[in-house]
Amino acid sequence: MVAPSAALSAAQQKQSERQQLADIDRRFGEMLHQDSTTWNLDAIETEYKMLQQSVTQKSLSGTIDMRYPAIDRYRRRLAKFLEL
């Protein structure tokens, strides 16, 4: 059996990381379509942070950084809703 090349392994790792991000993004989107009282923004944020700590691609880490302001916006929106 031949071991996969380093380039192939790296490409597979990058694809896996992108897929993990897409999965979290999908769950985040699905959550936002549910009743806001069921949102768990902390759990989504934790998933993003865990993925960010493990990614090998700097560009993907930067892409994850762009998710945090959205989470903060929804936190503020939820807080205003709960005040009513």
Secondary structure elements and pairings:
Layout: H1 6-32, H2 41-54, H3 58-65, H4 67-83
Explain this structure.
The chain has 84 residues and is an all-alpha fold. It is 79% helix and 0% strand. The protein is built from 4 helices and no strands. The chain has helices at residues 6-32, 41-54, 58-65, 67-83. It is elongated, with a radius of gyration of 16 Å. The model has no long low-confidence stretch (mean pLDDT 93).
Reported for the largest beta sheet, the result is:
none
Number of helices: 4
Net shape: elongated
| Rg over alpha carbons | 16 Å
What's the β-strand tally?
Answer: 0
Alpha-beta classification: mainly alpha
* Through-space gap between termini: 64 Å
Provide the helix percentage.
Answer: over 70%
- Give unreliable regions as ranges: none
Please state the average pLDDT score: 93
Strand content: under 5%
**Helix-strand string:** HHHH
